[in-house]
Amino acid sequence: MKKSLTYLLIGAALILLQTAPVFSHEDNDDGPPPARPPRPIGLSARLGGLPEVPSVSTTGSGRFKATINADRTEVDWSLSYDNTEGEIFMAHIHFGQQHTNGGIMVWFCGDAPPPSVPAGLPLCPLSGTIEGTFTAMDVIGPAGQGIAAGEFEEFVNAILSGAAYVNVHSLKHPPGEIRGQIDSRRFGPR
């Protein structure tokens, strides 16, 4: 019985091997399959105090949602936060993996006096939602980590590699009160 089953399996394998070229793509007269068009990529992050480095005990929470357009030239974003224990004075996306701190890539909002706040930014609300669009003009670095100002593709690659986080800073917790690592997902058929 065992021997018959072995011969049967070998015979089936030989038949399948002979018919494999019929099913292979290389013999298709239509040429290679069409390239998939680029698709938008969704981004999200949940913000809280525990992901901060070091962790912060806070009542604050937040949510970041964004979409990288199919051409990878813009990121439309929305940042919401509430119940923070301190007045918010700046918020941005940093270049860094979980459990590490990194330099700033782009700004959401900022209030003077910190000298690092770029001119012309909207003021950070005490709570609520702010929205906008990032382009290459908004990428400021961090040059010390290999991302020069204006390098939008590097910014996008950092996000898609899981090496970017949203950080919201308050007067009570200046290094950051709430933080969330950015996750990505592709839209459309796989």
Automatic annotation (TrEMBL):
It comes from Candidatus Manganitrophus noduliformans. This is CHRD domain-containing protein. The keyword Signal applies. Keywords: Signal. Residues 41-184 form the CHRD domain. The keyword Signal applies. Residues 1-24 form the signal peptide. It comes from the Bacteria.
